[in-house]
Each structure stands twice: as C-alpha cells, then as structure tokens.
User: Fold DYW domain-containing protein from Rhododendron griersonianum.
Amino acid sequence: MHQTLISSLISVYVSFGCSNLASQLLKEIPCWDFDLISANVIIAAFMKIGEIDIAKKVFDDMPICDVVSWNSMIGGFVKNGRFEEALRIFQEMLSLNNEPDAFTFASLIKGCAQLGGRDHAQWIHGLLIEKQIAINYILGSALIDMYSKCGRIETAKEIFETIQRNDVSVWNAMINGLAVHGLALDAIALFSRMVLEKVSPDCITFVGILTACSHCGLIELGCKYFDLMSGYAIQPQLEHYGAMVDLLGRAGRIDEAYAIVQEMPMEPDVVIWRAFLSACRTQKNSHMGEVAINKIETLKSGDYVLLSNIYCSANKWDSAERVRDTMKKNGVRKNSGKSWIEMAGVIHRFKAGDQSHLEREAINKVLEGLIRRTKMEGFIPTKELVLMDVSDEEKEENLNYHSEKLALAYGILKSSPGTAIQITKNLRTCLDCHCWMKVVSKILYRVIVVRDRIRFHRFEGGVIDVEGYASSMLWDIVAVVLDLPAGGARKETITVHCESENGLTPPQY
Assistant:
C-alpha cells in the first residue's frame, strides 16, 4: 500500500508539472523497495519528464523486471532522443532471454527512424519477423516511416504493398516518406490511388502532399491540393498554412506567402513565422526577414542565424554584427552542426571543426584532397554564409570543416570505390555543402545521400536527384482527382533511390 501510494503520488506530481516535487519525494525515501507494478509506474513517470538517470536507477535496483519494465526504459530513451541507448538496453533485454512484444518493437522502430541507421533498421525488422510479431497498421506505418527515414524508400514501398492498407495512417506514412525523398509525383499518385481505393484522407495526408509539392516547387499542384481539402470537410490548420508559406517562399513568391500569413483565420504561430523567415533567407529579403523576427516572441539560435545569414548575403555586416551582439546579450548560442554516418553497423559522429575522431589525420587528408579536386573542377565556396566579417581565407577554412564534409570524408575513407554513401545531419544542410557534395559526386562517380532536418538530398554525377518522366497513366490518375488536363507524359524531377540489402546481424556500438 505504501509503495502504491508513493508511485501514484509521483505520477500525480508529474502530471501536474511538479517534477521537482516528484524527484524530491523519491530522494527522501530511505529504501527503494518497490514492487514490480509500482516501479514500472515510477520509471514511466520519470521518463516522461526527462529524468532519465532517476528512471534508470530505479530500473537497475529492481530485482525482477517484466516486459513492461523493459518497454518503459526503451520507450523512454527513444522519447528523450537517446536512440543508441535504447538499442543497447534492447540488446541487454535479449541477452537475459526476455521476450519483446509489439510495444517494444514500436519504440525501437521509431528510434531507428530518427537515428537513420540502415543496418540497425534491417536488424530490428528481421527480429520482428523472427519473433513472429503480427504487423498491424501501427507497426506497418512505423516500418514504412523507418525505412523511408533510413534512406530505403524502395523497401518502404515493398512493405506498403504487402500489408493491410485499410487505415489512413499507413497511407500517410508512405506519402510522407515519398515527400521527404523529393518524390512529389509518386506521393501525388499514391494520394490518387488512396482515393480510388476508398480510403478517406485526413489532415496529416494533406500535410504530406503539400510538403512534397513544396520540396519540388510544384506551386500549381500545391494550391490545388490546398483547395481540395474543403472537399473532404477538412479545415486547414497551422501545419497546412505553414506548408503553403514554405511552398510559395521557396519559389520566391514572398509577397504571396506573406499574404497567406496575414489572411489566416487563426493567429500564426512561431512555426509559420520561421517558415517565412527561412523563405526570406533563401530570397535574401532582409526587410521581410525583420518583419518575421519581430513576430517571434522567443527567439532561438536558428532564428538569429537565419537573419544574420540574410544580412551577410547582402553584405550588411553592421546589421549582422548587431544580431550577433544580441545573441551574446541574451545568452543564445548557435546550435552546433552534427552529422553521423553508419559504417558496418557502427555510428560515427562528427561536429563542425571536430578533431576528436581516432582517425582524424586520415579523415583530414581525404578531405583536403577532395577540397583541392573540387576547386580544380571550378567549385567556389559560398563565403557569404560565414557569420563573421573576416578574411576570405578564414571564411573558407570555416566552411571546409562542416560536419557533413567530415562525415563524407570518413565514408570515402572506409568504403569501396563506387559505393553509395549516406549521411544524416541534425540541421539543414547549408548551401556551400550542398553545392560541394554535387561536385564530389561527379569527380568520384559516387551516389551521395544526405538526410538533413528537412529532407533527403541525393547527388549523383554532379546533379541533384535524377530527372525522370511521370508515365501517362500516373498523370491521368492525378488529373482525375485535380481536374487537370490528362494525356501525355509530363516532365518532372523525381528521385530514384535503390540500395542492396545487408545480412541480419546485430549492429555494434
């Protein structure tokens, strides 16, 4: 009774946002002799508020754990962004002969999706099949999302075709997966097929479609789908307006994007203004960028950086300096760029300017060689991106050691010539790295895939993505839904992404 009361009280504290009282209560207990149910409640409560160390201590002191205990730990690590630790504790679970269930795999699949580790993803999927866990619409959607975010869009398509598709979440997962890979026409065709198969789209479906149109600059189609929402009795929400602002902003139609913000039936939130600020950065529009900044109540480092980038690109160094001074005054630090690459099941992480890797000398040698060769091909660094009024040489040095460049150099060092390289980054890839990757893909005859915070970028032969043509049948299906002219192939830029599968072996750490 005493244990149940304590665990219930901790849960109540957490529910009402009193995390300090919950932690204090646990610290004042002389002996953590909780029964299984009480311990599980406490672990879940502390994981919910991000008190991972306390939750882990309770877990480590438990004499007996059940699948709920393990799931609380694995799910908690995933929710708090500690994906590799979630995978490690899962391996510990297996080594102690504890059987995972569907909830275990749901958390692990989500973690693999965020980590972007292809070998990890395949290993988890193989175990899911081996344990004969039934794949319902929740796990099916999660698997599609995982493979999409790990760069295996073809595998995601295969899973989509082999599972039950009567729930809208399965379609949404596939549409969003195609969207982040820049496969806008494929996403649109899938939407049309969804309608023909009598599955009603929801608000999430349209977010995916609008995002796909935005990434590929399909303005007319994006506007058509935005208007189509009313036909399904779906009222546009902030996410849909944000996608439209992004769509128009990327296309350089800043005035139209701003008009949408002003005409929204609800108050635009910080996400809307950040989408507009990003568009201002792309179009180098400092005046409208200032308008967006003034509308964001709590500025984060990325907001300051975007505005400073706008000023730097316009050579307004005094204004850029004022932005940096404001950052210092408010105690805001620029987010550090981080990239990682999976090689033989091991995740290798890099930060901008990082010299901590054990093979840093070899990495630097490869990177320096690549920089020389790209310059010989005519590559010119985008020096205006450097947020400092320093010499060109110093600016170039700053750009040379961005995290994704270090990760690419390591991938080239450790892989066979001609093989594809995939990198994941926590922030958006900068214009300089984007252009540089294109040149590297050309001189090395390599496919280079970069997954940044927004989407996948695929470079091959010195170009972005692979140009292709949508078939007449695909376009005719789209035309049925949107009342567009049918017949004839229509040229669109699409991405083709195919990779071979690896064997099922537990990844290393």
Remarks:
- The chain is about 60% helix and 10% strand.
